[in-house]
């Protein structure tokens, strides 16, 4: 039986793309995966049975490499985190928070610094160096002087990407410059829900000229530490995770434990004090979230 990828889900139909064709498919109930039953998700690889040239039935859902909740989508290859250098101002706190969420979800991140034309080279370089040192790809871009735009096209090719970033950072401008006619839904989910109308979340993978897909809805609209344990949070800081095997205690949270390699690296200036401050702040947010959501 043929295999394809779900690129859209709407009103009980799954749209499966296979070799340039789209089949609208029904699914027969839920699918058993290990011990749980799953609903097919946009992004899933599926085995389907062909009814005719336009219709089919989903027979089997393939293993997922990852799974996002907001928007509901699986097998995402990368998150493109768009942060503007100016209006809105670059926020290292927000970037670090996004990174904890992408790491926790098991999704690679590429950092795009938009509106680089609005600030000095030095300001851009400082941020590039800092995040490259942690291990992230950082691409300064501008839709005004077009720097970095081709690099973004390159990273999108043949991958499934989810854009993320605050409203107004320039996600739509960038995508539109690269792929005229491709537009993202607005990033402001709360506003949309507030209007009470289109409350059903619908996601679609938009095929890009040259190969690859981009989700039409920005990802990570909720940045609460849902489903994070304290250790998950520590592990979502890649610069900490790199060193934690040298901490004396397994499961070290790098706070007040003796012989902690992360604290040693912090004192040696190898880990940024700002990153560590953010870590401590997120720990407080996580504890606050857990207090509010106690099961009893
Ligand atoms: N100077 C400068 N302005 C830019 C650049 N990219 C986008 N802008 C401007 O920034 C504003 C916001 O851009 P959008 O593309 O709408 O931002 P967005 O991230 O899609 O915003 P939402 O749809 O609210 O999520 C617009 O006025 C753009 O013209 C850039 O590289 N340089
Ligand atoms: Zn430690």
Automatic annotation (TrEMBL):
Listed binding positions for Zn(2+) are 247, 252, 254, 260
Localization per record = Cytoplasm
One Gene Ontology biological process: ribosomal small subunit biogenesis
Could you say which residues bind GTP here? 114-117, 165-173
Q: Which GO terms describe its cellular component?
A: cytoplasm
Q: What broad class of enzyme is this?
A: hydrolase
The record's EC number reads 3.6.1.-
Q: Describe the subunit structure.
A: Monomer. Associates with 30S ribosomal subunit, binds 16S rRNA.
Q: What does this protein do?
A: One of several proteins that assist in the late maturation steps of the functional core of the 30S ribosomal subunit. Helps release RbfA from mature subunits. May play a role in the assembly of ribosomal proteins into the subunit. Circularly permuted GTPase that catalyzes slow GTP hydrolysis, GTPase activity is stimulated by the 30S ribosomal subunit.
* Protein known as: Small ribosomal subunit biogenesis GTPase RsgA
- The organism encoding this protein is Brevibacillus brevis (strain 47 / JCM 6285 / NBRC 100599)
């Amino acid at each position: 039986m043929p295999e394809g990828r779900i690129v859209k889900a709407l009103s009980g139909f799954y749209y499966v793309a296979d070799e340039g064709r789209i089949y609208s498919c029904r699914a027969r109930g839920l699918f058993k995966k290990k011990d749980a039953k799953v609903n097919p998700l946009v992004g899933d690889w599926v085995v389907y049975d062909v009814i005719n040239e336009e219709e089919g039935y989903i027979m089997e859902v393939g293993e997922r490499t990852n799974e996002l909740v907001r928007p509901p989508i699986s097998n995402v290859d990368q998150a493109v985190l768009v942060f503007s250098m100016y209006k809105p101002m670059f926020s290292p706190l927000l970037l670090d928070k996004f990174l904890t969420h992408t790491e926790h979800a098991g999704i690679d991140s590429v950092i795009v610094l938009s509106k680089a034309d609005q600030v000095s080279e030095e300001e851009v370089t400082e941020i590039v160096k800092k995040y490259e040192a942690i291990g992230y790809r950082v691409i300064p871009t501008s839709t005004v002087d077009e720097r970095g735009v081709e690099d973004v096209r390159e990273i999108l090719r043949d991958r499934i990407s989810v854009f993320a970033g605050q409203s107004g950072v320039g996600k739509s401008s960038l995508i539109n410059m690269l792929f005229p006619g491709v537009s993202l839904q607005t990033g402001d989910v709360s506003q949309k829900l507030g209007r009470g109308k289109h409350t059903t979340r619908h996601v679609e993978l938009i095929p890009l000229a040259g190969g690859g897909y981009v989700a039409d809805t920005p990802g990570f609209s909720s940045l609460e530490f849902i489903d994070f344990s304290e250790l998950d949070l520590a592990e979502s800081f890649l610069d900490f995770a790199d060193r934690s095997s040298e901490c004396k205690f397994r499961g070290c949270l790098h706070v007040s434990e003796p012989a902690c390699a992360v604290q040693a690296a912090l004192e040696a200036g190898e880990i940024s004090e700002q990153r560590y401050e953010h870590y401590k702040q997120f720990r407080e947010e996580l504890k606050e979230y857990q207090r509010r959501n106690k099961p009893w």
